[in-house]
């Protein structure tokens, strides 16, 4: 009887760790990518931005921003910059998106959404949105 409870408790602990590690794995990936790019970051803000992205960070397609897709960039502008950060529409938003794309490198296929949003948040000094 005690043996069964011990096995069950261990299974719960293992399951709990594996759920938590998916998010941690994403954060580690972002940190490594920031280091490769030579971009400094604040880990606590990065975690908050990643959490704000929700389950999209776990999807291979949704976790990345396609800089060659104009509709995708419009969604970033409309939903994130204007919707989440409250930035007014204008050329400054397009310029900021292009600056972030340049930081990643246009040919870089790993433009992770959480990192992209992080850089835009810092660019517009909107860290308080995630406070």
Structure description:
There is one protein chain. The protein is mostly helical and 131 residues long. It has 5 helices and no strands. The protein has helices at residues 2-37, 43-53, 70-84, 91-104, 113-123. Helix 4 (91-104) packs across helix 5.
List keywords for this structure.
131 residues; 5 helices; single chain
Structure summarized in a few sentences:
Helix content is 66%, strand content 0%.
Describe the secondary structure blueprint for this structure.
Blueprint: H1 2-37, H2 43-53, H3 70-84, H4 91-104, H5 113-123
Helix pairs in contact: 2-5, 4-5
Largest sheet: none
Order of helices and strands: HHHHH
- Give me the Rg, rounded: 18 Å
Number of strands: 0
Gap from first CA to last CA: 48 Å
Given helix and strand content, the structural type is mainly alpha
**Strand percentage, roughly?**
under 5%
Query: Total number of helical segments?
Result: 5
> Any low-confidence stretches, pLDDT <50, length ≥5?
none
Overall shape: it is: globular
Helical content class: 55-70%
Mean pLDDT: 89
């Amino acid at each position: 009887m005690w043996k069964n409870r011990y096995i069950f408790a261990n299974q719960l602990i293992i399951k709990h760790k594996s759920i938590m590690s998916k998010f941690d794995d994403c954060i580690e990936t972002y940190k490594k990518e920031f280091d490769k790019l030579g971009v400094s970051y604040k880990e606590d803000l990065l975690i908050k931005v990643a959490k704000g992205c929700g389950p999209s960070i776990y999807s291979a397609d949704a976790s990345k921003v396609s800089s060659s897709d104009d509709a995708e960039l419009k969604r970033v502008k409309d939903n994130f910059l204007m919707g989440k950060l409250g930035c007014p529409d204008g050329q400054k938003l397009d310029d900021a998106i292009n600056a972030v794309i340049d930081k990643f490198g246009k040919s870089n296929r790993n433009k992770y959404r959480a990192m992209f949003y992080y850089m835009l948040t810092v660019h517009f000094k909107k860290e308080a949105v995630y406070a």
